[in-house]
Design brief:
Number of helices of chain A: 14
CATH architecture of chain A: Orthogonal Bundle
Order of helices and strands of chain B: HHHHHHHHHHHHHH
Distance between the termini of chain A: 40 Å
Helix content of chain A: over 70%
Distance between the termini of chain B: 34 Å
Shape of chain A: globular
Strand content of chain B: under 5%
Number of helices of chain B: 14
Oligomer: heterodimer
Radius of gyration of chain B: 23 Å
CATH superfamily of chain A: MetI-like
Order of helices and strands of chain A: HHHHHHHHHHHHHH
Number of strands of chain B: 0
Shape of chain B: globular
Chain lengths: ~270, ~290
């Protein structure tokens, strides 16, 4: 019915598919093809190399931890911005998007400068014995920075739409504030919180620009997986770079699938409690 | 909402908790987001205004600015046309594999920027699929401007489509169908009905797409080859100066990108305040 009235189905879909094919699918096919060049044994050897393992562990572990912290702080900031009224609220709300808008290389050198031993925050942290720049902790800080807006921005619409009645009912039934939060509010927010978590995670796993400056890139210590790909390319080891790229894509795909499963489970949790 | 909050009496212990939560959130935002931004400008002007101006007027900086503009001017319009076409097909017609198409459009957001650059090296580099053919015909894509453009297109591909799809979905197609029934041609319908309906969301998408296109680092760094004055965009110039310990120079050029980010945020906030309904609820933009 519709198809007959509105024009342009063939041309718009055809154009979109051709464009996606040329820009996304063809290059990804080249990636898979090059990666297959090193064979299964080569892949195993590459992935079991201590340096690769250390880098993958840092990229995945750091991203998981950063996404977790972002879920907690993002919930707090989102809650404060939606629920409370205070001077400058809109300005702070706009500020949340800064990590999206600030180019990663700029964020990278700014964070390094800030957390370096002679930096504004670094000097102060040094006194209490915490080293951030050029350590895995620095990688983590940069990952929290780039992933921060995701949780806040996914939560905000849901927080705004959250029915106050349920909270008030819980409280009139004698629930304490923290009980209301953990038993009523959190289960309702859990699926959305997980969406934000997954977005922050996906971003942090592959993050490059904001991390490499503050990481110091010490092999086996503060070297991230995307940097290994760059190094392999610089040594003209195209097959190795491609294989590592495929491995990273598969790993982040697995992570996201597990988050999606967790989300399904939390959806049921939310339905049960509401 | 605030009326209801006011109608409920709030005891002072709860008010203390409110103020405490607000303070913790604001301190985090200031220390973690505002301070890095402030650093950029403080470091850029550390030695005064004259060295700042000199750092930006160096020929390498000027050619980096020019190259960044060229890349954005090619990549953004291409992704606008793609975004409109994809949104039109996805929101106005039913077809098999629609969900798969949506996932494909989002794919560049979940790929590491380094991999986004790598795929083009594998395609067009000396050892790539088309490498020998390109070499025989003396066409350079990798370590040249076309490579920078391609990597940027890949990275920014989802922005416009992702803004338009939810909006056009919620708007429905009644107005467009009416225009057709009343005898409008396809293009008349597009320019007089569709485009006015989506203009603010389109502008919003273009804004985010452009910010990312001009600021992209990882993908561009892989395909650039870092040939100064020829294949270095502003972010790459920042990196090179920083690695050469030219901190004032690096932060001076970085301050241009920070300014772009501030303008982007300001326009974005303005659009959300003024035309929030016409932009529609949207998922947060990625990478």
């Amino acid at each position: 019915m519709r198809r007959r009235i509105l024009p342009g189905f063939g041309i718009s879909l055809g154009y979109a598919l051709a464009y996606l094919g040329l820009i996304v699918l063809l290059p990804l096919a080249a990636l898979a093809w090059k990666a297959s060049g090193i064979g299964f044994e080569g892949l195993l050897r590459l992935l079991s190399a201590p340096r690769t393992l250390a880098a993958l562990r840092l990229s995945l572990g750091g991203a998981l931890l950063a996404a977790l912290i972002n879920a907690v702080i993002g919930l707090l900031v989102g809650w404060v911005l939606v629920r409370y009224r205070f001077p400058g609220r809109r300005l702070f709300d706009a500020l949340v998007d800064l990590p999206f808008a600030l180019p990663t290389a700029v964020a990278g050198i700014a964070l390094t400068n800030l957390y370096a031993p002679n930096g504004w925050l670094g000097a102060w942290l040094e006194k209490i014995g915490i080293k951030v720049a050029y350590t895995p902790l620095g990688v983590f800080v940069a990952m929290v920075f780039v992933g921060f807006p995701f949780v806040v921005r996914t939560l905000q619409p849901v927080l705004t739409a959250l029915e106050r009645d349920v909270e008030e009912a819980a409280e009139s039934l004698g629930a304490r504030r923290w009980q209301t939060f953990f038993r009523v509010i959190l289960p309702m927010l859990a699926p959305t919180l997980l969406t934000g978590f997954a977005l922050a995670l996906a971003r942090a796993v592959g993050e490059y620009g904001s991390v490499i400056f503050i990481a110091g890139n010490i092999p086996m210590h503060s070297e991230i997986a995307p940097l290994l790909i760059v190094q392999k390319l610089e040594q003209f080891d195209y097959a190795g770079a491609a294989a590592l790229g495929v491995a990273m894509l598969l790993l982040s795909f697995l992570l996201l699938v597990s988050v999606a499963l967790l989300q399904r489970w939390s959806n049921r949790w939310a339905e049960r409690t509401s | 909402m605030s009326a209801r909050m006011a109608s409920r009496p709030i005891g002072w212990p709860r008010r203390v908790v409110h103020v405490g939560l607000i303070l913790v959130a604001l301190i985090f935002l200031v220390l973690f987001l505002l301070l890095p931004l402030a650093t950029v400008f403080v470091e850029a002007f550390r030695e005064g205004i004259a060295p700042y101006v000199a750092a930006i007027r160096q020929p390498e900086a000027l050619s980096a600015i020019r190259l960044t503009l060229i890349v954005a001017v090619i990549a953004v319009p291409l992704n606008v046309v793609f975004g409109i076409a994809a949104a039109w097909a996805m929101t106005r017609f039913e077809f098999r594999g629609k969900a798969l198409l949506g996932a494909l459009i989002d794919l560049p957001f979940s790929v590491s920027p380094v991999i986004s650059g790598l795929v083009y090296v594998l395609l067009f580099g000396a050892q790539g699929w088309f490498g020998p053919w390109l070499e025989a015909h003396d066409i350079k894509i990798i370590f040249a401007v076309p490579g920078l453009v391609l990597a940027t297109i890949f990275i920014t591909l989802p922005f416009v489509a992702r803004e338009l799809i939810p909006l056009m979905q919620s708007q429905g197609s009644e107005e467009e169908e009416a225009a057709r029934v009343l005898g409008a041609s396809g293009w008349q319908m597009f320019f007089r009905v569709t485009l006015p309906n989506i203009r603010w969301a389109l502008l919003y998408g273009v804004l985010l797409c452009n910010a990312r296109a001009m600021g992209e680092f990882g993908a561009v760094s892989v395909v650039s080859g870092h040939i100064r004055g020829l294949t270095t965009t502003i972010p790459l110039e920042v990196e090179m100066r920083y690695n050469e310990y030219d901190y004032v120079g690096a932060f001076a050029v970085a301050s241009l990108l920070a300014l772009l980010a501030l303008v982007t945020l300001a326009v974005k906030t303005l659009l959300e305040w003024r035309y929030g309904d016409e932009i529609a609820a949207h998922a947060p933009g990625g990478h």
